[in-house]
Queue: 2 jobs
Job 1
Amino acid sequence: MRARPVFRGTELGHLVWVALLVGLGFVAVVGSEREQLTAAALAVPVAFVGIALALHFFLAFRGFRGDELLLPLALGLAAIGLVLVQRLAPAHLLPQQLTWAIIGGGAFVAAILVPRDLSVLSRYKYTWALAGIALLALPVLPGIGREINGARIWVGFGELLSFQPAEAVKVILVIFFAAYLEEHRELLARPPRRIGPVPIPPPPYLIPILLMWALAMGVMILQKDLGATLIFFGIFLAMLYLATGRAAYSVAGILMLIAGGWAASRVFEHVNARIVTWLAPFSDELRFGAGYQLVQGLFALGNAGLLGAGLGNGMPERIPVVWSDFVFTAFTEEVGFVGALALLALYLVLVFRGMAIAMRAPTPFLQLVAGGLSFALAFQTLVIVAGNAKLIPLTGVTLPFLSYGGSSLVTNFVIVALLLRISDVTMRVRGG
Amino acid sequence: MEVPYQVALWGVRLAFLLVLYLFLIRAFASLWRSLRVETELAARNALAYLIVQRTHATGPHVGERLPLRAVSAVGRDAANDVVINDEAASARHALIELTEGSWWIQDEGSTNGTVLNGSRLARRERLHDGDVVEIGRIGMRFEAFRA
Amino acid sequence: MIRPIGANIRALTLVIAIAFLATSVGVSYWTLVASADLSSDAFNPRLLATLLDRPRGRFIAADGTELASSVRLADGSLRRRYADRSLAQVIAYASSKYGAAGLEAAYAESLIGRDVADPIGQWRARYLREHPDPGSVQLAIVPSVQRAAAAALAGRRGAVIVVDPRSGAILASVSEPNYDANILVDPAQQDLAWQQVNGNTERPLLDRATQGLYPPGSTFKLVTAAAAIESGWDPRAKVRVDDPYQADPSWGSYHVRSPSQAHGDFDMSLAFQRSENIYFAKAGLFAGAQRLTEYASRFGIGAAPRCELAASRGQIATGTIDRPTLVADTSFGQGELLVSPLQMALVAATIARGGSLPTPHYASAVLDARGDPLRLVEPGAAGQAIRPDTAATIAAALVAAVEAPGAFASGARIPGVHVAGKTGTAEAPSGAPHGWFVGFAPAENATAAVAVIIENAARGGEDAAPVGGAVLRAAIGR
């Protein structure tokens, strides 16, 4: 990819606005907390703008021809995330999140450079699958596995570095599915057998699908990570649809998930608890117990109104661990419905862009990878926002770019890098 | 907190919201523009073309250049990459693709078949520059400027 | 014949866009539609946020006595302090953990300087973080009457509520058993206290005065009398009473029993004195089911009284009164009737006030930090329930019911004052019957109306009457 440097003017233009966003946000939040606007306080937004420019110039000097909207969108969301960490989280978490942002930038650069040719990814699909399962199993191992808040999904090395492998597994899963489905999509789309209206793929191809379902249920049971289960399964069904175009698979899959979930709720208390809390969080038994977080979140939403209580003026501190699962409600309380709508629209534009890149991609494999990654972003966003708004049961997934969390931030930057690469390849194949 | 300070703070908050919306609108505008450009781009920078030679009253005009991508689905259905507006064409009629440097055409199980250079297409055949493809009542000449 | 992936991508994008739209609608529900309900929820910490940082407004009695206030402890923290345990269900509590209840919840905004009478102050508090010194909420509660009520009830399970018929102001309200709200707001003890108070089967958190529902027993005869008189019944006519009474054989085994196995002629005054069930059954049947129901609702039974606290609606019957036996049963206060002491106090107040139903309220004014009134709480009358002459007739009969020799309500007598009143003995689901007393004084120009209920009283209404008398005495002497 050694090409002449190129001027990415649109991208630079958008980044100016990102800088404004992060600057104003920090001023508003720090000003509200009655702290002095010291150099230290402004160091974080300045550092962030530095990272943004570094990534931009990296792409420009590499002669990168990919999309110019994705990176600013991602950085804009990450900027809001930093502002929210400053607002919501204990002071020592802000430098940590900035560090993760730098690591994310590094991962971004790495994903742009390596591997040289994307089709390499499609050749080693079973390796990918095994790696994914291994990563997923890591937290269960004694020693490095950590159980936090009842879920065994973390891996830690010492106190400082802990990450959730489930986040990286998401990307691996998309690549694996893309490769597998591309190879077998004809057979899956035109299965010789049917049960009633549901097409049944031939057994050798049926096995991986059922294995997938079993894996999803297994993760939920063993690790008590309902969010990851939902995301994995959603990605699986979506990519199956993208490859085959048969909606029947998705419908059957959703029904299977609901059935599995219902059965799990009968057998496993922690699953049942989530559903009960979702349905009646204000009840006397739950409002101070399991439902407390959701109830406080809804109170925060109620305080939002149209324009919000003002950045720095709300009361999000009442929501436990507000900086990870409930950033959306904290943000909404302070910027109002108007601000929340803009945020959701930003995510939607990001997803649209990713899907557009997917549509234009030159080979089916790349189309599936781009489509799957964009869907993963969209689905995760929907799941957590809908959970915050009591539309679905709450699951412990993070809001991409906004939530505090290193693994999430780094993984999402890698996703953006992969999408950009696919867009770059498309530009080159098309010429011009 | 004195009132002026609070008012100024509110100014910053509203400015934040404003910047958020402007950022969003600009992003949306970029998206829109690129979608428009992209349809033109697809046409202008197509990898190859099917140039319409024989048509009927309601079909494409003679001389119209239908752009082809690396993989193009051809048929009557609007979801195809190349849409053939002819009753005699099947919804999903044929597939033209560029693999390992060569162009290929294959019939996708259409009702009336695909004709290549006068003879009905059996399975998958190579496509060369100048070949004539007939789908339904539409005849087209294949033009590739990358060999 | 497989769909091109591009088409699938388009379809999936559409699905995603719809999902985002649906989610936005969901968010808009909480932020815009349900916003008011959420903001005023008793457990929303935003209204109580100031509890710990800044002094909250006070509750003061009619004479200025402090009933609830924020005190600063030695360690600098603020805590609510409640002076009068007998007001535990009325003022209730404001806890940063357990939310607010009672008047602390009803006047939550006013107590942090955001009263509706001051919209600019409200706006400044929310957006400019300006916190004016909160004022106080002045209640109509009169400490001497409150003390008398608590002393007279003497810890027996039940309630006493006193209303000023002229304005609807609530002068005293006691509900036993009660609890010490101070422990509930003490962070060191609140968790245990909360568990105990909630788990107590006697339900000390329940305000029996406004939310306790009981059959009214003979006190309902006030309503029956009004319905009958305004249907054409002559209160001075002598009506034959023979125990037991059955209007016609279709009543089967149901008979109306006279409490004194009477055989004789009764006019309304005598019927009130002797609490003669058969007389009132006949009167009720004369008025008819429809009229009886209508007059019960005119007196406010079946609708929640519009005071600051949540009050029960009560009921005239579970469905409608559809059979003569139910008419008869309802006429002397049993049947399917359920009323709260507040509702009965309002019945008494209506009769005292010449037939006009007052609107009850606990607060009389909201004051600012300097003590000047921000706004007065003066809801008007709820409507004219009965004619003034009807009210006068019943009032006269009620005076006799207290003053006649051997009257059941004689315990309510006050030397030198004409007291109007009626006792009632209502069947309880188990144990001894409940004892009621409703009344007002002075009869000619009442300044206080009272309703007393003692659950499972040994001697029914006769136990309640002295309580009523003591309370009325304190009230008119204030």
Note: Residues 217-358+383-475 of chain C form a domain with the Beta-lactamase fold (CATH 3.40.710.10).
Job 2
Amino acid sequence: MISALGRRTLALVEAAGRWGFFVTDLGRALSDVGTWSRLLAGQMRRIGVDSLPVAMFIAAFTGVVLALQASYTFTGAVPMYFVGTLVGKTMMLELGPVLAGLALAGRVGATMAAELGTMKVTEQVDALETLAYDPQSYLVLPRVLAATLMFPVIVALSILVGICTGWLTSLVLLHLSTPEFIKGLKIFYRFKDTWFGLFKSATFGGTIALVGCRVGLSTYGGAEGVGRSTTRAVVYSAVLILVLDAFWAVVLL
Amino acid sequence: MIEFRDLHKAFGPKPVLTGLTLTVKDRETMVIIGYSGTGKSVALKHVVGLLHPDAGDVIVDGRAVSTLDRPGLTALRRDIGYVFQFAALFDSMTVADNVALGLRRRGLGEEEIADRVREALALVDLTGTDERMPAELSGGMRKRVGIARAIALRPKYILYDEPTTGLDPVTAAVMDRLMVRTREHLGVTGVVVTHDLRSAYTVGDRIAMLYEGRIRQVATVSEIQATEDPVVRQFIEGRAA
């Protein structure tokens, strides 16, 4: 029992140490601007543009559901223009960043883990090293930076789409007027609502990419190993997004 | 000159290298032979710092590899071309981009890169394959692209990890000819890891047999062929124990 506990503790410390080295190496790779800057735009397009359809789809339906649920809750008790308040606040502060983050943990995190995992088991990462490239600056840094920069853009558009579908739902199904919806939207709005959600999404993006790359680069064991890494990257990212979400709520709200 | 000095490496409880000592002289091709799983590729990876030794070291032109920091390793790797067992081509890049990648790292102009890529592909008889993807190539062609990628850098040393494994006899002979041609054209020092004896006899100046983690015998091709050492004899005759 005690030795098992000791082993687990040691494994945990070892894992923390490996993460520490990984992040330190990443910081050091920042100085290799010539390598990562050439690859950044391509990664931004892949992570940003290619992820937009999924994120927009989720946001569109979230906006509809939020408006309908708000109306269901408020009817007879709270003025209906508060539908706008609930849709706006919830999309900006919580559901926009978190739902997009969780969806993209699946899409972006899994892709990175699978891609880098395959490169690892087929010795492409070793080949890169023998060609005098640092895998951190060639593979990891462009992905982490691109995800950190593009997630706020994706989430901003998601919030916009969610609010628009919430407004359309209010108009068509709840017979609310546009001025009423906008009144609700503006009534408790603070600039912090916007930057909080976008800042949070930037940290989600960086985390998803970090986890995807780290897990991908530690892959071993052929195709089965790549499968294992992909699953692990999605699970770790999802858990970390929820933990970070709570952390930022405690620290910043 | 590459010197393996009392190199030790274990993976978990399993020792792989237990005191490997070997010197590869400039401009020679040293072939390391041995049974599968005896640590031949592991030894090779220590030369470029892909693995870190538990004890001992590899010394390349006076530089102890395990003590080098990242810039030191990068400088060392600029002198060494590495041909991987399964070629390790970047599957999202064309053949030309694969060969050019290392050259871009060296900051060469695009015109010079194009010339070097053309020259390297010609040397491995793959002219005209520039725009093909690795997935469209046969195993032998992929290995030749791997060699082109290494020689395009005009390295001082080339390390070949099982260059003929998995190839038919004719393609393997083509690979052997390529390795000999590379040495003749570029004057590079080579280390070839293989268990293909025909290849070893064709390309090697000297042959070293790795057995139980250390060098059992190192000698010229003719000396190895006439060896009295029972372990080496058994290996080169391909006799079951």
Note: The mean pLDDT of chain A is 92.
